[in-house]
Here is the input.
Amino acid sequence: SQKIEQNSEALNIQEGKTATLTCNYTNYSPAYLQWYRQDPGRGPVFLLLIRENEKEKRKERLKVTFDTTLKQSLFHITASQPADSATYLCAKNGANFGNEKLTFGTGTRLTIIP
Amino acid sequence: NAGVTQTPKFQVLKTGQSMTLQCAQDMNHEYMSWYRQDPGMGLRLIHYSVGAGITDQGEVPNGYNVSRSTTEDFPLRLLSAAPSQTSVYFCASSYQGFGNSPLHFGNGTRLTVT
Here is the structure.
């Protein structure tokens, strides 16, 4: 079965440093990989989407990489701030191109320490 | 713009009772889905729909029914509630359902079955 794993359940980073979160998957490489932010008591909010033919995607202080050889995506927050504290989820699409099922990892709870 | 609206926010049921979780979106999205989120398990797909009149099962469909009579609404029915269905339920929609469109989530329904 397809699995998507986020290595760290929790991560503490000093304010101003770069936070790096890891997402690994098994078997086939998905066509798309997405990252979401979730705050307590709220639904996930979309951050970035990266395609299999893209190595890197950036949005302001956020950067996502996608390595199909390592079967891994990295999510970076540069110049981290306490407001970046949240749980971050990665998700990938299903087995066949066009598969409608998006599978999520269990998330990494990020805390930025002032 | 309301986005995805879920009602109720909280619900307590007794074992064996039935209820419907409501989900509505005002973005004219074709794709809608229901997830449940449990500690340590991440978001798991229950049912999804790629358009009005079309539904399909996700990873954990047992004990739940869905229908999609309009583009806007995608209710989730619990037929006979069980304590194992205690969870937070999220409805989500997207323009397309192939992993190449961001999911827009509601803020969830927290369900407790006693």
